Amino acid sequence: MAIRVQAEPFDPGAEVNAMHAANVGVGAVVSFVGYVRDFNDGLEVSGMFLEHYPGMTEKALGKIATEAEQRWPLLKLEVLHRIGALEPGEPIVFVAAASAHRQAAFDACAFVMDYLKTRAPFWKKENTADGPRWVEGRDSDHAAAGRWKQ
């Protein structure tokens, strides 16, 4: 398992390639890349600033990843999230799960993203034409995470 929270940009393609480079037992890698949009709720967004609580954020992401590893037979799991100033079009989050078979990788990747959106302590401030505003959690994110309750 790899958990990274960083200000530096990343290359999603390189991250996917690294997921299976050293393990020929990997039969499937499923990844999700989230990008900063140039709009939200009908408003133009010129940029975003992400804050987190160092140590606490990594611990929360680690708990989510550990739960995924307990639920599915994964060979590798990576969660990478950017912080700091970001521009529209930049990758903000990368989640990838590697497994011998595709379904475990699909399910684990979706699970991690759903829980990341609702349990990871990140605070997002968007820069809009109306001025800066904090981004609130969405009910749809909580509904998506609810499907994984055991």
UniProtKB/TrEMBL annotation:
Top EC group: transferase
Q: In which pathway does it act?
A: Cofactor biosynthesis; molybdopterin biosynthesis
| Reactions performed catalytically | 2 [molybdopterin-synthase sulfur-carrier protein]-C-terminal-Gly-aminoethanethioate + cyclic pyranopterin phosphate + H2O = molybdopterin + 2 [molybdopterin-synthase sulfur-carrier protein]-C-terminal Gly-Gly + 2 H(+)
One GO BP on record is: Mo-molybdopterin cofactor biosynthetic process
> What EC number(s) has UniProt assigned to this enzyme?
2.8.1.12
Q: Which UniProt keywords apply?
A: Molybdenum cofactor biosynthesis, Transferase
Keyword check for Transferase, yes or no. yes
Q: Where is the composition biased (Basic and acidic residues)?
A: 131-144
Annotated stretches, region: Disordered: 131-150
Stored Pfam families:
MoaE
Domain of life of the organism encoding this protein: Bacteria
Entry similarity comment:
Belongs to the MoaE family.
Protein's name according to its UniProt entry = Molybdopterin synthase catalytic subunit
Q: Look up and give the organism this protein is from.
A: Pseudomonas viciae
